[in-house]
Design a protein that fits this description.
heterodimer, A: mainly beta, 7-stranded mixed β-sheet, B: about 110 residues, 6-stranded mixed β-sheet, 11 strands
């Protein structure tokens, strides 16, 4: 079974530029999460989707971050404009929801803002 | 909100010895406590978890203990091997229905051959 797929794996941009990350969860997983992991820290939740509905976006900086999961499958996280402090690893995870609580993580996208 | 503290931040043990990592949580409503292993360049991978109605759980060389009264839980790895070297994260989740995991700050475990 394929795991959570993320792309790109690495991204280097200059500040004020836009950037987008893509995630394809494990097939059949209706819950999708975006986390940000700063260097030397644990992941912090940005947003959680149940199917196509964002049910917890309280930690998403809405002035510059946006996310979508239009068909309840893959998802895109966007930052516009990027700031130096956005440099981090952006992790996507998915879970089956009612069938289990385990969250399966993708490899992440390492973003460097110069 | 929930706050999870993890200690130590780094840990080096001789191959074959045991390693213990400890976490405390703040919200007494938390009922699910997973442990994740993260290798370089990879996402976190679940290695063991425990629910609040259980005090201890084992899976081969890995065990987790939970003390609800003291609000702390620990990861125990016995007979450590070089492939156990990684960063380990504990996490806590408040009662069923809220899927938000709050992670600790991680422990970098190094196994010395």
């Amino acid at each position: 079974e394929a795991g959570v797929v993320q792309s790109p794996r690495y991204k280097i941009i200059e500040k004020k530029q836009p950037v987008a990350f893509w995630c394809n969860p494990i097939s059949g997983h209706n819950t999708l999460y975006w986390y940000r992991q700063n260097l030397g820290q644990g992941p912090e939740l940005l947003i959680r989707y149940e199917n196509e509905e964002a049910v917890d976006d309280s930690q998403l900086p809405k002035d510059r971050f946006s996310a979508e999961r239009l068909k309840g499958v893959d998802s895109t996280l966007k930052i516009q404009p990027a700031e130096l402090g956005d440099s981090a690893v952006y992790l996507c995870a998915s879970s089956h929801g009612l069938a289990g609580v385990e969250q399966f993580f993708g490899p992440g996208t390492r973003l460097t803002v110069l | 909100g929930e706050n999870v503290e993890q200690h130590p931040s780094t840990l080096s043990v001789q191959e074959g010895d045991s390693a213990v990592i400890k976490c405390t949580y703040s919200d007494s409503a938390s009922n699910y406590f997973p442990w994740y292993k993260q290798e370089l360049g990879k996402g976190p991978q679940l290695i063991i978890d425990i629910r609040s109605n259980v005090g201890e759980k084992k899976d081969q060389r890995i065990a987790v203990t939970l003390n609800k009264t003291a609000k702390h839980f620990s990861l125990h790895i016995t007979e450590t091997q070089p492939e156990d070297s990684a960063v380990y994260f504990c996490a806590a989740r408040v009662a069923f229905g809220n899927e938000k995991l709050t992670f600790g700050t991680g422990t970098r475990l190094t196994i010395i051959p």
